[in-house]
Amino acid sequence: MAIRLDFQVRPANSADQHQIADLIQNGDFVHRHLDWRNPLEWIGAPPYLVLEQKTKDAHYRHTAAAFACPPDPPQVAWIRLFAISSGLILQEAWNSLWPAAQVELSRNGICRVAIIAMKDWLPGLLLDSGFDFRQDIVILERPEEMLACEARPPRVRIRLMTMGDLTAVEAVDAAAFNALWHNSLAALSRAYQQAVLATVAESEQGVIGYQISTRNTLGAHLSRLAVRPEAQGQGVGHALVADLIRSLARHGASRLTVNTQSDNATSLALYRKLGFVQTGERYPVFEFVQRNEEKLGRSIPRRCSWLLH
Question: Sign of the C-alpha dihedral, residues 16, 20, 22, 23?
Answer without folding.
Answer: positive
